[in-house]
Design a protein that fits this description.
The complex is a heterodimer.
Chain A (H helix, E strand, L loop, with lengths): L3 E5 L2 E4 L1 H9 L12 H14 L2 H6 L1 H9 L2 H9 L7 E5 L3 E4 L7 H11 L4 E4 L7 H13 L4 H6 E5 L4 H10 L2 E4 L2 H8 L9 E4 L4 E7 H6 L2 H16 L11 E5 L2 H21 L6 H16 L3 E7 L3 E6 L14 E7 L2 H7 L4 E7 L3 H11 L6 E4 L9 E2 L2 E2 H4 L1 E5 L3
Parallel strand pairs in A: 4-5, 4-7, 5-6, 7-8, 9-10, 9-14, 10-13, 12-13, 14-15
Antiparallel strand pairs in A: 1-2, 1-6, 3-18, 11-12, 16-17
Chain B lengths: L12 H22 L1 H9 L17 E2 L2 H4 L12 E4 L10 E4 L1 H19 L4 E8 L1 H4 L6 H10 L2 E8 L7 H11 L4 E6 H14 L7 E6 L12 H12 L3 E6 L9 E3 L6 E2 L4 E6 L13 E7 L9 E13 L7 E8 L32
Parallel strand pairs in B: 1-13, 4-5, 4-6, 6-7, 7-8
Antiparallel strand pairs in B: 2-3, 8-9, 9-10, 10-14, 11-12, 12-13, 13-14
Helix pairs in contact in B: 1-2, 8-9
Classes of the chains: A alpha/beta, B alpha/beta.
């Protein structure tokens, strides 16, 4: 079995059996509890390092992470775990996290919530990780100097090669396995069995959408329209439109003729934002976009495709029900007009995750959610919030998933 | 258009474009009429049926990777004579190129006429710098194998320079040279193999290759570590083996029958009369001026059974000059692959998409039909 590289706490390579033995040994000072102050203090110190101006400037996504992990936010999240009556809440046990290689921060959210729930954790960090992930690990190791020793004992981030034996050993030992990174990762990791009592929390491939109310757009001020374009830009371009919550298809909801006017204006504004942000599309990505967009056309799902430079491509869908759900490349937006949100209800599938919106009334959105009735779409968020991670993700209340309830009836 | 045996590198740029434009326009119409997905793409882009083009540059291109994701063929199912696939490592995507009988016959004809420019009309004794295993083992039959097999047609009395264990067969090479070394002979192989298994062996054993004509392809990536570029390759062969007639070529499985051949003085590739290249600015996609690098578009009137007449490659290149080299037309170099597209995202599924899986040998078209 290949040795495991210890990234946090930084240390010499270990064998998986030794790693597991030390992780699960009874800690001095007692086992972790849900919302354990020793973990909360450590995470707050770590968050401060992420928010240091130099770090936050270099990796804006780490600033978002830092905000998410401030003491106030943590206390708010933990408050939701309080139980009453016969229920007592406890950590779930050893949690094994398998995050994706190409989003540098997912592993931190996943780990931090599980640690706050009081679990010992092993996080497998990809050998391909770079940039922000390296900074995260450096910040974690720095924060460790002032932390209670139980943090080092129970929280581990490791890297190992493509060794199924290590994955299998960690899988067999854990009480909960968290698999991010899409269908292929989930299927691959599931080849390693977990204990009968254990369970998987999986984050498979998802598709996300954006929608603008034609009436809402008509009634919006020029500033609101500009802000909508900026929010949509952030949602779409930050992770190359490849995050599970990045909007792909853009729907206009309302009158078709009025929608055409709004579309033209919105795309012009988006073009201005892209130009102002100096967003550069690498040639290979520009080619990828052609391959994808031409592909949608080749399959008969497009009536028109249009490239506004390399940064913004639009595809007019022949039928909104044939919405492409695969990634098409950064800044590639299939478009269609829907008569009402109820038309999307018929299109939605289980794998659909985020629906970002502009110009709708809250009541319309609540009614829409009721009509969807959980059959698809887990998040309905305003433009600009598509990528904001939350403790409820993919329909799971993560702190609840990371803990368990014992009932006592007297 | 037809290419004569003598004249395949005969047309100056203006004559070439004048001849290519109507042929490409006709081909575009032909493919629109016979390949529905292709017609849908052009229709979506706003090209009307019967559209006229002012220049070769204006004729719409397809990204070469389209052939990995879609069935693009311009012949009915029951006329498909052969489906060629680009090789790929396990699980990698492959291009599918559909040929009918006519196309399967045309393709080696065009290749033959192109190679005759440097080989003459007679079939020469041929040293293959590969292992016979590459064509024997059908299970791992690859673009490299197809290239070897296709090229074998242009020689006779073939001798393979590697044994079945991929080790240089020095005795076989010596035997070949003893028999044929005093008259013109043909050498074929992929660039890195020619360097590693022929040049190094010939230097060590002081073999005389001065009557050889070397045709090679496959890029320089594997030779970068050894600090070998085209100039060094030619210099070393000339100095240590006497081999001076060296012709690199560039072509791809997705445009079968068309190869862009290095001229006698080296360092530039030339387009046969039935083909052309356009170097495009990766920002605006307009044609780059001479001397400015960009993405290579390959243009050829050969593909009739699939819409491969105008393809945007994933290679970078530069035109050095027009009508000012060994042969008329554009002379150009290939500078390497576009770096692959990589995205950040929570999902891993797209990682199978834009990944560069082609081996260097795969950019070689070898006339497999």
């Amino acid at each position: 079995m290949s040795p495991i590289q210890q990234r946090f706490p930084a240390g010499p390579d270990v064998e998986v059996t030794d790693l597991l033995a030390s992780l699960t040994a009874e800690p001095e000072g007692g086992r972790l509890k849900v919302g354990d102050p020793r973990i909360v203090d450590f995470i707050v110190k770590f968050a401060r390092k992420l928010l240091a101006p130099a770090t936050a400037r270099r990796f804006p996504e780490l600033a978002s992470l830092g905000f998410f992990l401030r003491r106030g936010e943590i206390n708010k999240a933990l408050a939701g775990l309080e139980t009453a009556g016969d229920e007592l809440r406890f950590p779930r046990g050893l949690v094994f996290h398998v995050p994706p290689a190409n989003v540098d921060t997912i592993f931190v959210y996943s780990w931090a919530l599980s640690a706050l729930a009081g679990n010992p954790n092993v996080v497998r960090i990809s050998a391909r990780s770079a940039g922000a992930a390296e900074t995260v690990i450096a910040c974690l190791n720095e924060a460790l100097a002032e932390a209670d020793p139980i943090v080092a004992q129970t929280q581990r981030m490791v890297t190992y090669g493509r060794d199924e034996a290590v994955t299998s050993a960690l899988s067999a030992a854990c009480d909960l396995r968290v698999i991010w990174g899409g269908d292929r990762s989930v299927t691959e990791i599931r080849k390693s069995p977990i204990a009968p009592h254990a369970r998987d929390l999986t984050f498979p491939d998802r598709a996300s959408f954006a929608a603008i109310s034609v009436d809402g757009w008509a009634n919006a001020t020029p500033e609101q329209r500009r802000d909508a374009a900026t929010g949509f830009y952030n949602d779409s371009y930050w992770f190359d439109q490849a995050a599970c919550s990045s909007p792909r298809t853009l729907f206009w909801v309302g009158d078709e003729a009025a929608a055409q006017i709004g579309r033209t204006e919105f795309l012009a504004l988006l073009g201005e934002v892209v130009a102002a942000k100096h967003f550069v599309v690498e040639p290979a990505m520009a080619v990828q976009k052609r391959v994808s967009a031409y592909g949608v056309a080749a399959e008969g799902h497009a009536t028109a495709i249009h490239f506004n430079g390399n940064a913004v491509a639009t595809i007019e869908l022949a039928n909104p029900a044939d919405v492409p759900r695969e990634w098409l490349g950064v800044g590639t937006f299939p478009q269609a007009t829907l008569t009402g949100l109820d038309e999307f209800v018929r299109i939605a599938e289980r794998k659909d995750q985020t629906f970002s919106h502009f110009g709708f009334q809250r009541e319309e959105l609540v009614e829409f959610a009721h009509a969807l009735a959980g059959r698809g779409i887990d998040r309905i968020v305003p433009f600009g919030s598509a990528l904001s991670f939350a403790a409820v993700w993919d329909g799971y209340d993560l702190l609840s998933e990371f803990s368990r309830l014992t009932t006592v009836t007297g | 258009m037809t290419a004569t045996a003598e004249g395949v590198f005969g047309l100056a740029q203006a004559e070439r474009e004048a001849a290519l434009l109507p042929a490409l326009t006709e081909l575009t119409e032909h493919h629109r009429a016979t390949c529905e997905p292709y017609d849908r793409i052009l229709g979506s882009l706003g090209y009307a049926r019967g559209a006229e083009f002012g220049t070769v540059e204006e004729v719409p291109w397809l990204p070469v990777r389209m052939f990995k994701h879609h069935v693009l063929k311009s012949v009915p199912d029951d006329e498909v004579f052969k489906v060629l696939t680009s090789s790929g490592t396990t699980g990698a995507e492959v291009s599918r190129i559909y040929l009918d009988k006519q196309a399967a016959g045309d393709q080696p004809r065009y290749l033959g006429r192109t190679l005759q420019a440097v080989l003459g009309e007679k079939r020469l004794p041929m040293l293959m710098v590969d292992t016979i295993g590459i064509i024997k083992n059908r299970r791992s039959f690859s673009a490299r194998g197809a290239g070897v097999l296709g090229m074998a047609n242009f020689g006779r009395q073939h001798v393979y320079a590697l044994d079945e264990n991929d080790q240089p067969d020095v005795e076989a090479i010596k035997g070949f040279l003893a028999k044929h070394g005093s008259e013109p002979f043909l050498i074929f192989g992929f660039t890195f193999m020619v360097w590693q298994y022929l040049y190094e062996v010939a230097r060590e054993h002081k073999l005389d290759l001065s009557n050889g004509i070397l045709i090679h392809s496959g890029g320089w990536k594997k030779l970068i570590d050894k600090a070998v570029d085209n100039a060094e390759f030619r210099r070393a062969f000339a100095a240590d083996t006497g081999l001076t007639r060296i012709h690199n070529y560039y072509g791809m499985v997705e445009q079968l029958g068309t190869v862009f051949l290095e001229g006698p003085t080296g360092n530039s590739l030339y387009c046969p009369d039935f083909a052309d290249i356009v170097i495009r600015d990766p920002e605006t996609w307009a044609e780059q001026p001479v001397g400015v690098p960009g993405v290579i578009e390959v243009v050829s009137t050969v593909p009739r059974s699939y819409p491969g007449h105008v393809l945007l490659t994933e290679d970078l290149g530069v035109v050095h000059g027009v009508d000012d080299g060994d042969w008329p037309g554009k002379r150009f170099s290939v500078l390497g692959r576009l770096p692959r597209a990589e995205a950040r995202g929570c999902s891993d599924t797209f990682s199978g998409g834009p990944v560069d899986v082609r081996t260097s040998a795969e950019t070689a078209s070898g006339g497999a039909a």
